[in-house]
Inverse folding.
């Protein structure tokens, strides 16, 4: 396929490519300041976020006990 | 760390559930707030985010959102 | 820098075609969603409430089956060719499965939409779950069967590609993306047996009138045999993107390749023997079987929590490489201006919230509180409706340029779109959960009753209705922005590097993971044993109770029938 030839930048002035190129999707790695290897990387932030998740989970579990269990009348079965 | 315009957008989006659930938290303690309270919370949160942006932001290029 | 379309032009054409089908059904399905959100809240009722079920069936089928699975077909084709670094074995096979799935999906859509024109005499208002004795036109079941067979062929296509690669690379580890595709497809083969048996042996002959009756509990149970794994069939493409693409978008590398493999193996093992947890309130299945399904379901939390750790750690790696510091401050160093990254990150955040309500659904006793209420749609709009759909839309911003060689029309609009989806879903899903707790039923056009008021814990029902309608409106606007952005991108001029498509190696690579993880035969064998253990006795007792074909005649969901019923009731 002759894709390479069709990809040359057109010279027309009203071409939409005159827009500034801006940020290319997926170019996050361009701003990398340092390489961190497996042993240099300590995911303490992940630990923090997961602890927050479990705290929310535990609090909501307790909340549910008060609202849905103690907060309602008895259920008569049969 | 400077706050970018994209960062402001994300924080504003994240503030919406926080504002809605703040009313729930008050409700849990027996304080029933009207719906307008969510709006007030949201305005306060957005104002706080914009203040943080104004303090930390540096001039950016025109590529922000 | 050559991108996917330059290296695999034929595969790229197939992937583009699947994405076109996916996005068209996304547009129609989202419009139906808007109609429902406005209808059941009472704001705008452009249709008769009788037609609500046509729209609801269309919304469920077009979004949950057509949009998600066509996106999956394209994504997996991309992933297999890309990670095996070779074209698919025979592009005619690839086009054949595309043709079959598309024809099947079109027949299903026609059968559903024909319900809006009563004079045609065709309808399929059976909702996404197509529970018997609700009966659809044979076209619906036939189309569905073609669609499923098409996905099987797609799986065969990928397995053939893998076999060809294996012949050339006898000692290499299976590349991670291909490993994910293969395990997902094994799960799919196992689970679709249920829906295939249900459609081909029971529902299709019944809709043609060859057999008179069905056993509704049997076809329901066979549906859920497939109906829960299909949830993971939606989710696995999102996981594939979260594990292999999101770390790169964040500027980092995948934390652990072996952990990713463990997660996909666990989903292969545990996805299917849990379906009965959708039937906690079905009479005819004893409590003991339901308890087994609940136990298996709780085990399924494990791979999702493993994913939470691995994916967040990979994002943190990117943030720290970009200069992030501290316990939480690193979050600010992530590339939030990238719509592909931000969409996936917000989808992951919403999935974490969906985990909370999912745990409520999974518990046998707590499930009684919210069963069949609006809570349940609230839950799955967070999971399939955001974790999956938003990840797919965000992923498109990164994938579509690779398939066309053209850049994205507008990155800021993309960013606005993913944020709008998040905010819209916060409003809609939050209100649905609350309304469900108040007892508001799901699947009704008019959830209000005379001389009965739902009592909410906080606020009023009117506020919840407003929140649902507003959220649904934002979601629809978000879809429109997405579709226009993709459409306008297709008119861009082809360029040299429309997107940064490189994927870095994981921090902890495949060489460190046990070889047994790649033994697909072993895991398939264990998965089959687990399914036999979980399903033999319940299915046996259902058949013993009411017979293979039961005694329930069909109730074709025709407008006339409903109108007749109305007269009878009045």
């Amino acid at each position: 396929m002759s894709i390479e030839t069709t990809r040359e930048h057109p010279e027309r002035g009203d071409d939409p490519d005159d827009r500034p190129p801006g940020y290319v999707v997926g170019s996050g790695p361009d701003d990398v300041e340092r390489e961190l290897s497996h042993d240099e990387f300590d995911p303490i932030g992940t630990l923090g976020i997961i602890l927050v998740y479990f705290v929310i989970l535990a609090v909501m579990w307790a909340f549910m006990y008060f609202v849905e269990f103690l907060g309602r009348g008895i259920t008569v079965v049969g | 760390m400077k706050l970018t315009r994209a960062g402001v957008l994300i924080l504003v989006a994240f503030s919406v559930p926080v504002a809605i659930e703040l009313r729930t938290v008050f409700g849990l303690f027996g304080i029933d707030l009207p719906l307008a309270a969510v709006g007030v919370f949201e305005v306060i949160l957005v104002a706080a985010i914009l203040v943080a942006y104004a303090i930390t932001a540096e001039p950016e290029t025109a590529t922000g959102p | 820098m050559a991108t996917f379309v330059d290296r695999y032009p034929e595969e790229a054409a197939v992937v583009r075609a699947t994405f076109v089908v996916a996005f068209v059904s996304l547009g129609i399905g989202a419009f139906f969603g808007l109609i429902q959100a406005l209808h059941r809240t009472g704001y705008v009722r452009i249709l008769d409430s009788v037609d609500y079920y046509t729209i609801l069936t269309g919304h469920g089928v077009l979004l949950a089956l057509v949009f998600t699975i066509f996106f999956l077909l394209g994504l997996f084709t991309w992933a297999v060719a890309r990670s095996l670094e070779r074209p698919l074995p025979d592009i005619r096979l690839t086009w054949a499965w595309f043709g079959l799935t598309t024809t099947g999906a079109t027949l299903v859509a026609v059968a559903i939409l024909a319900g809006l024109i009563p004079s045609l005499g065709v309808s399929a208002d059976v909702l996404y779950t197509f529970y018997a004795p609700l009966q659809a036109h044979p076209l619906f079941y036939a189309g569905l069967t073609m669609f499923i067979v098409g996905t099987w062929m797609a799986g065969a296509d990928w397995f053939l590609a893998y076999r060809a690669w294996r012949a050339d690379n006898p000692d290499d580890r299976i590349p991670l993306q291909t490993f994910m595709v293969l395990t997902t497809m094994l799960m799919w083969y196992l689970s679709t047996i249920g829906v295939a048996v249900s459609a081909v042996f029971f529902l299709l002959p019944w809709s043609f009138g060859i057999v008179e009756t069905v056993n509704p509990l049997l076809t329901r149970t066979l549906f859920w045999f497939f109906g829960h794994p299909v949830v993971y069939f939606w989710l696995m493409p999102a996981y594939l993107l979260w594990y292999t693409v999101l770390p790169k978008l964040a500027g980092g590398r995948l934390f652990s390749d072996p952990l990713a493999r463990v997660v996909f193996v666990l989903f292969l093992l545990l996805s299917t023997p849990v379906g009965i947890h959708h039937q906690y309130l079905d009479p005819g299945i004893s409590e003991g079987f339901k308890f087994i399904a609940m136990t298996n379901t709780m085990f399924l939390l494990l791979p999702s929590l493993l994913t939470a750790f691995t994916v967040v750690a990979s994002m943190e790696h990117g943030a720290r490489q970009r200069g992030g510091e501290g316990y939480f401050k690193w979050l600010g160093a992530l590339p939030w201006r990238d719509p592909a990254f931000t969409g996936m990150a917000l989808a992951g955040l919403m999935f974490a919230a969906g985990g909370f309500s999912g745990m409520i659904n999974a518990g046998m006793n707590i499930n009684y509180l919210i069963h069949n209420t609006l809570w349940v749609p609230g839950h799955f709009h967070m999971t399939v409706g955001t974790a999956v759909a938003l990840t797919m839309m965000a992923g498109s911003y990164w994938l579509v340029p690779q398939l066309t060689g053209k850049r994205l029309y507008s990155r800021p609009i993309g960013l606005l779109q993913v944020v709008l989806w998040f905010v819209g879903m916060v409003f809609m899903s939050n209100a649905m959960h609350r309304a469900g707790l108040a007892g508001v039923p799901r699947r009704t056009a008019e959830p209000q009753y005379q001389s009965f008021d739902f009592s909410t814990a906080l606020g009023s029902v009117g506020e919840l209705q407003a929140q649902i309608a507003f959220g649904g409106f934002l979601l629809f606007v978000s879809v429109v922005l997405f579709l226009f952005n993709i459409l306008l991108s297709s008119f861009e001029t082809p360029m040299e590097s429309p997107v940064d498509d490189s994927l870095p190696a994981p921090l902890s690579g495949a060489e460190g993971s046990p070889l047994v993880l790649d033994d697909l035969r072993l895991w398939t064998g264990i998965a089959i044993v687990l399914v036999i253990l979980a399903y033999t006795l319940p299915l046996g007792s259902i058949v013993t109770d009411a017979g293979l074909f039961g005694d329930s005649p069909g109730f074709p969901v025709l407008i006339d029938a409903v109108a007749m019923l109305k007269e009878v009731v009045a």
